[in-house]
Design a protein that fits this description.
This protein is mainly alpha-helical and 244 residues long. The protein is built from 10 helices and 2 strands. The chain has a two-stranded antiparallel sheet.
């Protein structure tokens, strides 16, 4: 009985679904779009141009920034995520539906938009794909926590440098080379650790391609291109590769 009460308490305390508020998926899309458009609009105001390479990295940095916040939530709500993952497993067995889709469709009241408990469900639902995110001893769990605390500042620096060129291009290139390389390396290592552990046998092919490969590919292929851009910034000494 105590166990059942504890589980019910977890459900009540963390439930996102409500009759008011903004859908989680829409909220994420709006935040990313506003951040990206801020960079693109500012560049157009300052330089009078719209460059495809700059647009790509404005979008990429704008995706990474909210994810960094989620990764901080992974650290601060790690006990809660482990308990919440059990809830989502049971929910999936009972309903046959995908927890990630349910989470994205649920609504967040305005007063809870920045709640770490709300965004902890990102990891609790993703742990249905990779159980490492409900286990603080794993590589994926700790690598993402590191990303959350280490990369926001250099991300913001590059976001601003690519937009208004406030740093010498060579300096921006050096920062970019370090940042983009760690994304390529850590994400590739995460993929390797997933397959070495045989975790792909516990999920469907669609989940493997859509969630594990598709989503994480963003942090391999765009940073690989970012390495090229960084080298050009260093060698050219100008922001010409970004249209400046």
């Amino acid at each position: 009985m105590a166990e059942r009460n504890s589980d019910q308490e977890t459900r009540d305390r963390s439930s996102l679904a409500g009759r008011s508020g903004i859908p989680v998926g829409l909220l994420i899309a709006l935040v990313v779009a506003l951040l990206a458009l801020l960079g693109i609009g500012t560049r157009y105001y300052v330089h009078g141009d719209v460059n495809a390479v700059h647009c790509l990295f404005s979008l990429f940095f704008s995706i990474n920034l909210p994810i960094c916040y989620w990764e901080m939530c992974l650290f601060f709500r790690r006990d809660y995520i482990e308990a919440r993952a059990e809830h989502w497993r049971g929910w999936r067995r009972e309903t046959g539906r995908t927890p990630a889709v349910e989470f994205l469709a649920s609504r967040v009241p305005p007063g809870r938009i920045l709640s770490p408990t709300v965004w902890a469900d990102v990891w609790a639902t993703y742990s249905m794909i990779d159980s490492a995110y409900a286990d603080r001893t794993t590589f994926g769990f700790n690598a993402d926590i590191g990303n959350g605390f280490v990369t926001p500042i250099p991300t913001l620096i590059l976001y601003a440098a690519y937009t208004v060129g406030f740093l010498p291009a060579t300096v921006a290139g050096i920062i970019g080379a370090m940042l983009f390389w760690q994304w390529v390396y850590l994400t590739s290592l995460y993929w390797a650790s997933f397959f070495v552990a045989g975790s792909q046998t516990r999920i469907t092919r669609g989940e493997l391609c859509g969630y594990l490969v598709g989503l994480n590919a963003i942090w391999v292929f765009i940073p690989m291109f970012g390495l090229y851009v960084s080298v050009r910034l260093i060698l050219d000494g100008t922001y010409g590769v970004l249209g400046g």
